[in-house]
């Protein structure tokens, strides 16, 4: 494992708080001259979305909305110096999507916002940042995006 990050993944759901995570990831990518991959999950149907117990993240139905989020995330990342920015959409929960993108890209760092981690639901059912931190084989940075 090299000391430098070569591939960094960050998740966005289009929210202001997730764009703070994108900004932090972009600054790190710029510092290491790393590839930044912005990921967004989406649900293929309302039924899929309602199967997830957690309501701590923005529910995105269909990949059109996900792609819109990625476009704005990419522009945001580039404004903070990231030069090599890729975009990935994946069906499923945010955790499933991010783990899939991290594994497919052999990323060394995953950046997520802290939304949900301190909520009652987050403590009982788990939250996106806590779950990816447990499941990830790479470094995970949890950015303080909501107080």
From TrEMBL:
Residues in UspA domain copies: 5-144
Family the UniProt entry places it in: Belongs to the universal stress protein A family.
Protein's recorded name: Universal stress protein
Lineage, highest ranks first: Bacteria, Bacillati, Actinomycetota, Actinomycetes, Mycobacteriales
